[in-house]
Amino acid sequence: MSSKGAKLVYRPVGLAGGVLAGLISGTIFKQVWKRVSGEEDAPSALQSEYRMREVVLAAAIQGALFAATKAAIDRAGARGFTKLTGNWPGD
C-alpha cells in the first residue's frame, strides 16, 4: 500500500480518535478544574462574573489536556494500524 493509500484508509481511524480524545479530555478537564477551583464548571469566555485570567487559564488547561490526549490516541492508533497493515499512516 502506498503512503497516500495508507493515509486515506487511516483517515476514519484518525477522526474516531479525535472524537474519543475530546470525550476523554473533557472528562479529565472537568475533574482537574473541580479540584483546582472548587467549582463544578469552568468559566466560559462570555460569563461576566469571571476575570480574564480565570477564563484564559481554564481554556489553556483544557487545550493542553486535549492536545496531549489526542496525541496519545493518534500515536496508539497509528501503531495499531501499522501492525495490521505494515504501513505507517503519517509518512
UniProtKB/TrEMBL annotation:
UniProt keyword terms in alphabetical order: Membrane, Transmembrane, Transmembrane helix
TM region(s), chain numbering: 12-33
High-level lineage: Bacteria, Bacillati, Actinomycetota, Actinomycetes, Geodermatophilales
Tagged with keyword Transmembrane helix: yes
Descriptive protein name: DUF4235 domain-containing protein
Organism from which the protein derives: Geodermatophilus nigrescens
Matching InterPro entries: DUF4235 (IPR025329)
